[in-house]
Amino acid sequence: MFFQEEGSLTRNRVLELVHKAADAARDNICRSPRRVLLLPPDITRAHSGAGWITEEFYKIFSKEAEVELIPTLGQHVPHTPEQNRWMFGEIPEEHIHVHDWRDGVTRI
């Protein structure tokens, strides 16, 4: 089992698992991705660590691919740029897109 752990996980262990998951994606989906879309939870799930985990995936894949991110909005309220910085750290704002749940999908 890939993610089976006993007890609590340290931040370093989570980072190890993020890198392992990125390697598994390369092995099983695409060795050299050109485009990556990350779909993390929105700020209402910040307590989960999803923001810094997403930032780590961004750092890994942005070295070789165009990486875009769409927070999946649990409250249907788009983040402000300040909330994006707080949640996703150094991911550039121009790579964070709004999930337009009313009017459909925009090709990125």
**Strand line-up in the sheet with most strands:** 1-2
**Mean of the pLDDT scores?**
90
Percent of residues in beta strands: 5-15%
Oligomer: single chain
Q: Rounded to an integer, what's the Rg over CA atoms?
A: 15 Å
Tally of DSSP β-strands: 2
- Total helices: the number is 3
The parts where pLDDT drops under 50 for at least 5 residues are none
Explain this structure to me?
With 108 residues, the chain is mainly α. The chain has helices at residues 11-28, 50-61, 81-88, and strands at residues 35-38, 66-69. Helix 2 (50-61) links the parallel strand 1 (35-38) and strand 2 (66-69). Helix 1 crosses helix 2.
Summarize the structure.
This protein has 108 residues and is mainly alpha-helical.
List the main descriptive attributes of the protein structure presented here:
single chain; 108 residues; mainly alpha; two-stranded parallel ribbon; 3 helices; 35% helix; globular
Explain the layout of strands and helices.
Blueprint lengths: L10 H18 L6 E4 L11 H12 L4 E4 L11 H8 L20
Parallel strand pairs: 1-2
